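Blinded run. Sample ID left blank on purpose so nobody reads anything into the name before looking at the predicted structure. Input follows.
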Amino acid sequence: MTGAQHAPIVGLAVGRGTGPELADVFERVLSALTAGHPHGVTIERSPRLYHSYVSLRAERDIARIRALTADDADHYERFCRTRAEQGTTAVFRTAINAQSLYLVRERLRAVKVDLLGTRGRSLLLVRDQAQGFYTGGNRHTPGEVTRTMTFSREATEAVVAYALRRARQEWPDGRIGRVVMAYKFHLLDGALDAWVSALADRLGIEIGLFQPDTVNRDLITHGLPDRTLLIAGNEWADIMHVVLLDRFDSERQENRCTENVFLDPALSGLTEYQTVHGSADDLAGRDLVNPVATIRAAALVAERHAGRTGAVAAVEKALRALGEQGVCTPDLGGRHSTSAVTGALLAALDAPGAGGTPADAALVGGS
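Blinded prediction complete.
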C-alpha cells in the first residue's frame, strides 16, 4: 500500500438499556488492544441512542411506537450505508429493538453467521435474516394486527450462495459434511422447495431442505455430522441458537458475540458485530451487565479489522484466567461488577492503557 496510512475506522451504534455501559466496555477494550497500532483506531459513534423494546413500550401509544420504530430503522440503515460508503469494514452494535433491527436487516439483506464447534465437531450456522416471518410490515385495524412478509427466489439464492462461500472459507480444504436448510417451507405452496431443488441441481450439490421439527429430531437422536452447513430461517434459528451453542460449544449466550453480514452489494465488506444477549434493561445503570460477549466482539474487531494479530487468542487466555479466579458478574454466579471484570481482563492482558487498578490485578493473580 502506498501513500498516507490512516487509522482504521470502526462504527459504533448504541441502544438503550445496558447499551451505553457495553459501548464503554467496547471502546475501552478495543483501545487497549489496538494501542500499538501506529495510527490508533478511530471509533465513529452513531449520534442516535436507539430504542430497546422496553424503552418503546414506555411510550404506551401504538402510533408513537410505530413512528419511533421506523425512525430508528431509517437512521440505523443510513448509518450503516454511510459507514460502508466511507470504507468502514466493522460496526459494533449493542442490542436495539428487534422490530427496527429486522426492518434494516430486510433492506440490507442480512445473514447472521456463527461457527460453532468443540471436541472435533463443527457447525456453521447461517441465519437468513433477509426474508421471512421476522421481516415485513404491520397493518393495524381495531383489535387486529396483520403482518405481511415475503420470501423470494432471489433472496434464497443469495443466502445459499453466501453460506457456501463462507463454509469454504471456514473449512479451506473444501470438505463440507452436509448442507441442511431448516425452513417452514410447507407453508409456501411448494415454492421454496422448488427454488432450492433447482439451485442444488444447478450447483451440483446436495441440499437437504427440512422442516424445523425434523432438524430438531435429528439433532436429538443422531446429532448433526461434523462440518454441517446449517442455513436456517430466522423463525427457527433465533430460538435454536442458544440450544446449538449448548450442543456444540458448551457456551452461554450471555458470553457470546456473533456477526451479521449484509448481502446488499452497496455494503459489501461491512460486517456488524453484536452480542447474542439482549439489552437487559433491568440491569441498566447498575454496572452489573456481563461484559464478556462485548469483550470478545472487541477482540474480533481488533484482529480482523485493525491489524491486531493474536487479539482473539490473547483475550481468550485472559478470560480463562478470570474464570479460574471466579472473576465474573452475578449472572454467572460471581460478585464482580461490569467495570471490575473489564478492568481485571485488561490487567490480565497487561495491555497498554488498560487502566486496571491494583485490586483488579490482584483478582487475576497478576497473570
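Unblinding after everyone has recorded impressions. The radius of gyration is 21 Å.
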